[in-house]
Amino acid sequence: MIQTFSSTIRRKEMDAVLTCMVDEKIGPGEINTRLIQAVKEFFGVSGAIALRSPDTALVYAIKACSIEDNSKVMVSALAPAWHLAAVVQAGYTPLILDVDSTTSCVTPAIIEEGIKNGGRLLVLHESMGILPDFEGIAALGIPVVEDISQSAGSFIPENLEEVSKAPEGTAVEVKGKKAGNFGLFAVCGLEEHDVITSGGGALLMAGGRKEWPVLKHVCSDIAGTQILPDINCALALTQVKEFKRNETVRKEIYNLFARMIMAGKNRTFVREAEYASTAWSFPLVLNSGFKDVKQYTAKKDIEITLAFENSIIGVLEKAKENLIEGQEVAMYDYSACHNAKALYLRTALFPLYPRLAKSQIDKISKVLGTLP
Questions:
Q1: How far is residue 228's CA from residue 35's CA, in Å, rounded to a whole number?
Q2: How many CA atoms lie within 13 A of 177 on its CB side?
Q3: φ, ψ dihedrals at 184, nearest 5°
Q4: What does pTM read for this prediction?
Q5: In what order do the strands lie in the sheet with 282-285?
Q6: 74 contacts 117 by C-beta, under 8 angstroms
Q7: How distant is the alpha carbon of residue 188 from its chain centre?
Q8: How does strand 155-157 pair with strand 144-147?
Q9: Are 160 and 173 within 8 A, CB to CB?
Q10: Which DSSP symbol is given to 299?
């Protein structure tokens, strides 16, 4: 069975973790410091902190925005459920937004409606590795905290003209503003299925020089037990260094899969494939029911999963279904999130990771081209 997810861990990652264990330096220390330096260089941010969990990181990011007490914080219905938990833990009220059906991301128009309904801060989930319309969002004047757990490494190119004018045979690197620098602060999860993993944890980052002192001050009370240990940092550090290599492989596979579905009834999300998106996985919005497609792929020894099973709307839907008569459970209004609900029910993730063998890639490609 070809699993939906498989950690991109090679000999380099294993050696880094093993060295850390042999040196008996597994708590927060030198490697945590080295990871932070690598993160600053890779993302182009002014400062960062490596923590044990993404929800803790998001709580501190929200607090650093200094919005008024009892304010509403906007979150995407398709964002991971820990967004909801972090907003509540930070002491604010979640305002759940619908998404665009073609990208699974929120849009300026959706956010603007959220602002009219009292939203004072946006936690921007860059769903499926796709970068949203940052220019349109910035024009709204709302503070933003990015979640780049799936979009890490993607960027908006800024020197394409220079690249196009370069003499033939001259290699000019395409550069631009990377995900994590469009909001006041950014969180990059390092969980098992995130695009960069440390086996668990998160990076909390401030892109601008003015924002970093603010974030650093807010985080001054963080206990040592919340800092990411060196044994996890060792894995994350190698993943950051190997990101370009892994992403190149992921995008090659993604482009192949995307070609295989062009003649079919199923679709994937609209994205700028070359720079402004990350090939986190291969999502497919199904024309038929998920159960039927899952049974079909299982017969071919390919595992697929619901893309948004652990999203905010996914968790709330399950809570509503499992509610025992008379039981009280915290529920939030997502009745207007029609696009999000449809995508939650019909979007599947197919295996896409660098460790896939050519025979496995060929097998998945053929199945994608023959789905019901």
A1: 10
A2: 11
A3: -65, -45
A4: 0.93
A5: 282-285, 347-350, 305-306
A6: no
A7: 7
A8: unpaired
A9: no
A10: H
- How far is the C-alpha of 261 from the C-alpha of 287, rounded, in Å? 12
The answer to whether 132 touches 107, Cβ cutoff 8 Å, is yes
What is the 3-state secondary structure of 58-102? Answer: HHHHHHHCCCCCCCEEEEECCCEHHHHHHHHHCCCEEEEECCCCC
With beta carbons less than 8 A apart as the criterion, state whether 36 and 50 touch.
Answer: yes
Mean pLDDT on 167-187: 90
Q: Which class for 222: exposed (0-12), middle (13-18), buried (19 or more C-beta within 10 A)? A: middle
Sequence-separated (6 or more) residues with CB below 8 Å from residue 241: 38
Q: Across the strands, what pairs with 177?
A: 156
pLDDT at 327 over 90: no
Strand pairing partners for 277? Answer: 130
What is the β-pairing status of strands 347-350 and 282-285? Answer: antiparallel
Amino acid identity, position 76: S
Say which residues have a Cβ less than 8 Å from residue 350's Cβ, sequence separation at least 6.
Answer: 4, 257, 281, 282, 283, 284, 297, 302, 304, 364, 368
Residue 330: closest CA among 58, 145, 22, 96? 96
Query: What is the C-alpha to C-alpha distance for residues 122 and 115, in angstroms, rounded to an integer?
Result: 9
Structure confidence at residue 17 (pLDDT) = 58
In this structure, of 61-65, 138-142, 259-263, 324-328, the range with the lowest mean pLDDT score is: 324-328
Q: What share of the chain is helix, strand, coil (3-state, %, to 5)?
A: 40, 15, 45
Q: How far apart are CA 144 and CA 105, in angstroms?
A: 14
